[in-house]
Design brief:
Blueprint: E1 3-4, H1 7-24, E2 30-36, H2 40-55, E3 59-65, H3 71-83, E4 89-92, H4 102-106, H5 120-127, H6 136-147, E5 156-160, H7 167-176, E6 180-184, H8 186-190, H9 194-199, E7 203-206, E8 224-227, E9 231-233, E10 236-238, H10 243-249, E11 252-253, H11 261-279
Parallel strand pairs: 1-11, 2-3, 2-4, 5-6, 5-7, 7-8, 8-11
Antiparallel strand pairs: 9-10
Helix pairs in contact: 1-11, 6-7, 6-11
This protein binds NADPH dihydro-nicotinamide-adenine-dinucleotide phosphate.
């Protein structure tokens, strides 16, 4: 039976380090959070981020904008926060109203304040192995792997999902650790080759958003399974991998919920402190 890789325990250890780093700063770091409209999921993220910030002595400043604002209003606020010396990091809460293009807007955030690590400059730095601000989900995955003492060198790592926020930056970071990386996506599934790739994975990371996409019987004996997926099925949250069958074959596995999820807010705060350290 697999050992569980649980985000909460790993997060607690990292929070201790963040607390020490905050104490060493001249001023408490300031996170500017922009919430547009009244989406309930975005409001829930704000609540959990504000709580995490408070516990770490981080100042959380919320900027609430009406759901009907134009993109220009949002851009103007970002430009103002970019030059505000009191602000160390900026986050735009998702989802945004349909009329606002996140990809376009997020590029206005100054790269040194981009604590989500999604500015093209920060993504580009991943390619050169020089990234300080790494997308939070990807940083969480790397920390979970690290927490299990799992060596990536020379391992067959299969990433399922090639999104800009998870799969693609993750593949680059794994390459830097000398893993042999295969990235699967919709094309792999449509070609009927997903099972074949998953069966060969010594380390499998799935970030798709489809419950039960990866069958438990496909998991290689002793493999490490990181399930990033979040799916609501009959009032329960499940991942993309069939957990019960997979945990019988894997050596390590993340539960869903409880695996990657609990770490991401901590990674956001770690990025904020990195940004504050670099600026101060
Ligand atoms: P996206 O929808 O942006 O990306 C999903 C990826 O999966 C795409 O690359 C897509 O390919 C690929 N895909 C779709 N269907 C298949 C298939 N049948 N076989 C193989 N690949 C497929 O999602 P995200 O990357 O943002 O998130 C993925 C999952 O992770 C979601 O469930 C999300 O909720 C969860 N998540 C969890 C986080 C956490 O903290 N635990 C944080 C972020 C995300 P294509 O685009 O070509 O169709």
């Amino acid at each position: 039976m697999a050992k569980l890789l649980e985000g909460k325990a790993v997060a607690e250890e990292i929070k201790k380090k963040i607390k020490n780093q905050v104490q060493d700063l001249k001023q408490a770091p300031v996170l500017a959070s922009i919430l547009v409209g009244d989406n309930s999921a975005a409001a829930a993220y704000v609540k959990s981020q504000a709580k995490a910030a408070e516990n770490l002595s981080i100042v959380y400043k919320l900027f609430q904008l009406d759901k009907d604002i134009t993109e220009q209003v949002l851009i103007d606020l970002i430009l103002k926060l970019n030059v505000d010396k009191a602000v160390d990091g900026i986050i735009i809460q998702m989802p945004l109203p349909a009329a606002i293009d996140y990809k376009k807007i997020s590029q206005f955030i100054a790269p040194e304040k981009d604590i989500e690590g999604m500015h093209p400059e920060n993504i580009g730095k991943i390619l050169f192995g020089k990234a300080k601000l790494i997308p939070c989900t990807v940083a969480s995955i790397m920390e979970l792997i690290n927490s299990g003492g799992i060596d990536l060198y020379g391992k067959e790592v299969v990433v399922v999902g090639h999104s800009e926020i998870v799969g693609k930056p993750l593949a680059l970071l794994l390459l830097d650790k000398f893993a042999t990386v295969t990235v699967c996506h919709i094309g792999t599934s449509k070609a009927g080759k997903l099972e074949e790739h998953v069966r060969g994975a010594e380390i499998l990371i799935v970030a798709v958003g489809k419950a039960g996409l990866v069958k438990g019987e496909w998991i290689k004996e002793g493999a490490v399974v990181i399930d990033v997926g979040i799916n609501r099925v009959a009032d329960k949250i499940v991942g993309d991998v069939e957990f019960e069958a997979a945990e019988k074959r894997a050596s390590y596995i993340t539960p869903v919920p409880g695996g990657v999820g609990p770490l991401t807010v901590t990674m956001l705060m770690r990025n904020l402190v990195e940004a504050a350290k670099a600026r101060q």
